Amino acid sequence: MLIRSELLLLPLLLGLAGAVQATEECATAVQCNQVGSAAYQDGRFEQAIEAFERQLRRVEEGDTAQLELALNNLILANLRAGDAGMARAWLGVALDNNLSGSSTRLHLRKVAETLNYPALSASPVGRYLRYGGQAVWSELLISEDGNGGYHASFSPVRAGARVEEYGPAAIGELDGKLVGDGVQMRLEDASLDSGCAVQLLREGIELRVQEVFAEGCQDYGGMGISVGGRYIKVSR
Q1: Where is the signal peptide (predicted)?
Q2: What does pTM read for this prediction?
Q3: Distance CA 135, CA 137 (A)
């Protein structure tokens, strides 16, 4: 008979064993595509998305057709999982890579039909993502501050080459008050040196962050960390 500690440990060991098995079955892009497709057909969309992200990492610097396949897998799996915002984010990665195959064009229409663009772009409040490669995203959360204004919380990451084994190569954290009209805003009350400005420009579901690059201005994270770049809003 298992004692209580063994009963608690058994699910953990089974979970670790499942993770190891999934890794072994998903060592190549072809295997990841097969594992993800099987999970998708079973309705296990979270597992499918994880496998398709691993597929993407194995083809991101290689064949364009394989890159388009992996990205379209992610678009479709997120649509079926009910996350049209995330599907739009992956579609953006495909478009940024100048991919325009038949599947990408089909999913462009499906995302446009599914995503409620007016509701998503009505307010700055929500979750924004910036793609960093290797299926890794930096995050920006904008919330109401309770005084009629907005608060921004940045979680930038730099993926690095071995993100699956070791996680992101660098991470950061930057928070502050947003001052502006909801379209053009600047970050205040953040732990930044004088002159280290961060500005946000919002248009629809896209948001551009501009920051000063100078000594001390990127001390909110590890080497190579920045909050600057183009973000897309995925949820309210």
Answers
A1: 1-22
A2: 0.89
A3: 7
